[in-house]
């Protein structure tokens, strides 16, 4: 991957939102003719092997400069392919998947993988777009299905999407597939990428200490209850890492500075 | 002949008070047959009760109170699963 033009990178407000919420969902990233081509392929796909390896269309989508710009902001200009999957929820499949975090508990203090969720077709709420819990990437001392007991959590959000939307998810975020109440199969293509370099200062850093960034850190996650201040502080600390500036401090009461964290 | 079955309601609260507000909820209903749907992930946006105390007022019995958190030095800011988990039970009658 080569470097993209600066205007394709995530800006500081978007990166702060990613630090706080653990995902960024971008509409209209992929033009409609590519969405239609990908959707047609996905409907016809029978395997064997990986859809990613077998499809020129999906690789073309992830080479689009506006897609590469987001990926470069998160995992650098030379990310490492981890794995991919074409996730399918059959028509009228009414059982929601259990809450989980993918893979196994991640021991990296700040480094992370990105899971891009590409929607090739319109995916309204009744079709089962992936359910996520914003901010849960900061509650990362959970392992795979250790949270499977949970059914509904305040603040949970379905990634309702138009064709051409990609959700970029932190690998620690709590999520699950959802029931499909339509007569159409639901497809989402997931691509997991590892960083190829330290994930510091990879985005468009203009105004990274500015008021728009500060506003993102005024959002507290209700699901965390009494711990929501700790969650906010964890997000502020994560943002320091993403900025490559260990002095920028948007934490509650400046706790990171107060305690020298 | 009628028999009873157990329903388990799990409520996660904002803090250690039984009156604090519900932040997560799950129902496991032993009165439903194997082919009936249980509560699904993501199927509701508002909790069935605002607090554990509200659920008690509606006839639920508390089986488990969470123990108070212990903050070990060096790990005070670590975050994971929801800490204030209450398990409640109700018995319902089924016809067989
Ligand atoms: Fe998953």
Poorly predicted runs of chain B: none
Level-2 CATH architecture of the largest domain in chain A: Sandwich
Oligomer: heterodimer
Show the largest interface. A-B, 36 and 31 residues
Q: From the helix content, strand content and strand pairing of chain A, which structural class follows?
A: alpha+beta
Number of strands of chain A: 9
The helical percent of chain B reads: under 10%
Please give the domain count of chain B: 1
Write the CATH fold name of the largest domain in chain A. Jelly Rolls
Question: Outline of this structure?
Answer:
Chain A is α+β, with helices and mostly antiparallel strands and 261 residues long.
Structure description:
The complex is a heterodimer of chains A (261) and B (96). With 261 residues, chain A is α+β, with helices and mostly antiparallel strands. Chain A folds into 2 domains: 189 residues, q2cbj1_9rhob like domain (Jelly Rolls, Sandwich); 48 residues, no CATH class. Chain A is built from 8 helices and 9 strands. Chain A has a 5-stranded antiparallel beta sheet. Chain A has a 3-stranded antiparallel beta sheet with strand order 6-4-8, with no helix packed on it. In chain A, helix 1 packs across helix 7. The two termini of chain A are 35 Å apart. By secondary structure, chain B is mostly beta strands. Chain B contains 1 helix and 4 strands. The N and C termini of chain B lie close together (6 Å). The model of chain B has no long low-confidence stretch (mean pLDDT 97). The interface between A and B is medium-sized, with 36 and 31 residues. Strand 5 of chain A pairs antiparallel with strand 2 of chain B, so a sheet runs across the interface. Fe (ii) ion (FE2) binds next to loops of chain A. Chain A: Keywords: Dioxygenase, Oxidoreductase. Chain A: Pfam families: PhyH. Chain A: InterPro entries: Phytyl_CoA_dOase-like.
């Amino acid at each position: 991957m080569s470097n993209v033009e600066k205007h394709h990178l995530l800006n500081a407000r978007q990166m702060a939102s990613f630090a706080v919420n653990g995902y960024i969902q971008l509409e209209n990233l992929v033009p409609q003719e590519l969405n239609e081509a990908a959707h047609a392929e996905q409907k016809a796909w029978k395997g064997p092997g990986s859809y990613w390896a077998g499809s020129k269309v999906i690789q073309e989508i992830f080479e689009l400069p506006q897609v590469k710009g987001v990926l470069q902001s998160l995992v650098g200009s030379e990310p490492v392919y981890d794995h991919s999957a074409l996730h399918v929820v059959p028509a009228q499949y009414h059982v929601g998947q259990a809450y989980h975090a993918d893979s196994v508990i991640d021991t990296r203090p700040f480094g992370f993988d990105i899971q891009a969720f590409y929607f090739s077709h319109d995916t309204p709420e009744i079709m089962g777009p992936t359910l996520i819990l914003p901010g849960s990437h900061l509650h990362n001392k959970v392992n795979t299905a250790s949270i499977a007991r949970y059914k509904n959590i305040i603040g949970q959000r379905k990634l309702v999407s138009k064709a051409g939307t990609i959700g970029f998810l932190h690998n620690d975020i709590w999520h699950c597939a959802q029931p499909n109440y339509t007569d159409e199969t639901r497809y989402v293509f997931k691509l997991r990428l590892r960083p190829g370099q330290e994930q510091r200062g990879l985005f468009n850093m203009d105004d990274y200490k500015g008021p728009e960034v500060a506003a993102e850190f005024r959002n507290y996650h209700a699901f965390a209850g009494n711990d929501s201040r700790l969650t906010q502080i964890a997000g502020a600390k994560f943002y320091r890492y993403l900025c490559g500036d260990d002095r920028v401090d948007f934490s509650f009461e400046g706790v990171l500075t107060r305690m020298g964290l | 002949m009628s028999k009873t079955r157990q329903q388990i309601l799990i409520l996660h609260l904002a803090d250690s008070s039984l009156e604090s507000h519900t932040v997560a909820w799950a129902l496991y209903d032993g009165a439903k047959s194997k082919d009936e749907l249980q509560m699904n992930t993501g199927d509701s946006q508002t909790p069935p009760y605002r607090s554990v105390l509200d659920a008690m007022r509606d006839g639920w019995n508390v089986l488990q109170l969470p123990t108070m958190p212990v903050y070990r030095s060096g790990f005070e800011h670590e975050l994971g699963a929801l800490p204030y988990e209450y398990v409640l039970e109700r018995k319902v009658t089924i016809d067989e």
